[in-house]
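Example record

Each entry pairs one chain with its bound ligand, magnesium ion.
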Amino acid sequence: MGAEVVVEGLTKSFGKQAIWRDVTLTLPPGEVSVMLGPSGTGKSVFLKSMIGLLKPDRGRCVINGVDIVTCSEHKLYETRKLFGVLFQDGALFGSMNLYDNVAFPLREHTKKSETEIRKIVLEKLEMTGLAGAETKLPGEISGGMRKRAGLSRALVLDPEIILCDEPDSGLDPVRTTYISQLLIDLNAQIDATILIVSHNINLARTVPDNIGMLFRKELVMFGPREVLLTSDEPVVKQFLNGSRLGPIGMSEEKDSATMAEEQALADAGHHDGSTEDVRGIVPQLEATPGLPERKGIRRRKDRVMKILHTLPPAAQEGIVDSLTPEEQQRYGVSPHHLVGAGQQQPSGQLPNQHHGQLPADQVARLPEPTRPGGSHRMRPRGPGQDGP
Ligand SMILES: Nc1ncnc2c1ncn2[C@@H]1O[C@H](COP(=O)(O)OP(=O)(O)O)[C@@H](O)[C@H]1O
Ligand SMILES: [Mg+2]
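Structure tokens for the complex follow.
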């Protein structure tokens, strides 16, 4: 099973430029998570901070008990071996063929013989659909193949955690779906914890177990996919629908006057360029038939059912709807007992379990410019920290 990654109060700036502050989230072991965010919100900086390539100003990022922000160089080097990283551009060596590119970490970090290396490299190339392309140079293959080669290389050290920076960028929608399926299949095969950074809505809707979003230098929310996909948060709605209407502007954010102007234009019938409302929970991609079932799915169900009562009603409904009748029985829930404020608790159910109204502090919302110490954002808890 992949490792759990606990990020607490992570804050990063470059000189006077604050990138994000107080990012707190837990990547549950073996689950797939996506971090969304408009361009320039610091998604790549976040990934690099998680592996210690960039040094955050404060906060912690703990893997197997090691805080990579403060640990020694030696510990950092050791802990980094748990990670496989697919950088945004694939980061392949242009003068090396795919075989040598993929073999590189093995030759660099292990004492394996060339025979052992050959076995691993061919296996990973096969896993990513690149069997037969070993002798090609990065410049001779398509963008999608380069991504897959980068992914093969990220896999050779049997990572417990895989970080993918925009695995879809530069790919057409069909190739994006292929890489999405590949990531799910990899998760099924190796049960690694996966974090994908992306601004691709379709990928975000179909691939991950958990979704987060960075905006205005903060983590707007992070939690089970059903929370973000049903969110009424203006920035989330705008992002999912690719609309100009909302707080995200041409260069990251806009003021309220501009927002009012655009709203007035839209009210007068000017099309704002968005698609129809795509919010809502769509089925999640499953591993290709024949592969093992994703172990993370069962673990996630147990985890999410523990925090169900803390989630917004629409998310609760989506989660319960996604359970089979047997599972609903096992967890003691049923769909028609969920929504509706003030509804009587059916006997035998936990108090306050499926109430329609949530206390305001449990609903995810946009961070205010100056926020007092406490946090009101959604976040899943690791298995070690029992739900509230
Ligand atoms: N090494 C660096 N030094 C200074 N500024 C940087 C560095 N890396 C990124 N930035 C700045 O951090 C911000 C976030 O960048 P990035 O993480 O690449 O955004 P995203 O991946 O979300 O598009 C940008 O304004 C970028 O210019
Ligand atoms: Mg980036």
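Residues 43-44, 88, 165-166 surround magnesium ion (ligand 2) (CB under 6 Å).
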